[in-house]
Amino acid sequence: MVVDGLQDDRVQAFHYDHARYTNRRKLCRFLLRWIGFTLLAKIGEVEGVENIPTEGAAILMINHIAFIDPIVVLQVTPRLITPMAKIEVYDYPVVGIFPRLWGVIPVRREEVDRRAIQQTLEVLRAGEIVLVAPEGTRGPALKQGKEGVAYLASRSGAPIVPVAIDGTQGFPALRFTAAWRGPGAQIHFGKPFRYRAEFRRAGREHLRQMTDEAMYVLAGMLPPHRRGVYADLSRATQETIEFI
């Protein structure tokens, strides 16, 4: 998500109603558990769930390898979460109904999507968890993170929980096929951090550094072949973040 040129007062008003989605999301999780993750995808190792705040706002920041990555995370996270996703997922045949039922926040990529930003901030103000894939697209290794994650975290004050994902390539796949013979999806929730108080209203000149520092935290949780543009961990700094 691009944030350059964003003006908060130009965003259309939006009110997030968690109760509206609760029963829908519980139904979707039930279907995912007993159909999706029984027949189409395998969940293997899950670590660090205790790092997810038991209450209050938070941002889950994931690397994005395969289509099912956000689905796996929302299934294994104890709390109901609100993912952000490219607006095109609403138009997918058959499966496009699930983003609508769940209340996924649609994002128009490569532009300043003020409505998506405002919706996300409203969800965070309501004390909910949002899932963000800062790269904005899928790939086998990390690409440069977009600055939306730093903007959302700094403006809301919400902590970021880095979530390293591996083993999702090849899914969805029917059970008993080759993909199921591997270890399955591996999800590691890292230690949460937030931006220091002096960066809570950071401008464009700091958002790039803030984003890269967050991405290096995520890169450090991934195997070397997944780190991509953040492969050189010696370049990582933590001037804008503090672990909690």
Textual characterization of the structure:
This protein has helices spanning 18-40, 69-76, 97-102, 114-125, 148-156, 204-221, and strands at 43-47, 58-62, 81-86, 105-107, 129-132, 160-166, 185-189, 193-195, 241-243. With 244 residues, the protein is α/β, with parallel strands linked by helices. It has a single domain (8-243), classed as Glycerol-3-phosphate (1)-acyltransferase. Strands 1-7-6-2-5-3-4 form a 7-stranded mixed sheet, with helices on both faces. A two-stranded antiparallel ribbon has the order 8-9. α3 links the parallel β3 (81-86) and β4. α4 (114-125) runs parallel beside α5 (148-156) and α5 packs across α6. The chain is globular, with a radius of gyration of 17 Å. The model is unreliable at 4-12 (pLDDT under 50).
Please give the structural blueprint.
Elements: H1 18-40, E1 43-47, E2 58-62, H2 69-76, E3 81-86, H3 97-102, E4 105-107, H4 114-125, E5 129-132, H5 148-156, E6 160-166, E7 185-189, E8 193-195, H6 204-221, E9 241-243
Parallel strand pairs: 1-7, 2-5, 2-6, 3-4, 3-5
Antiparallel strand pairs: 6-7, 8-9
Helix pairs in contact: 4-5, 5-6
How many beta-strand runs?
9
Described by the principal axes of the CA atoms, the overall outline is: globular
- Rg to the nearest angstrom? 17 Å
Approximate helicity band? 25-40%
Q: What is the first-to-last residue Cα distance? A: 26 Å
CATH class: Alpha Beta
User: Percent of residues in beta strands?
Assistant: 15-25%
Overall pLDDT score: 89
Q: Helix and strand succession?
A: HEEHEHEHEHEEEHE
Strand order of the largest sheet: 1-7-6-2-5-3-4
Which second-level CATH architecture applies? 3-Layer(aba) Sandwich
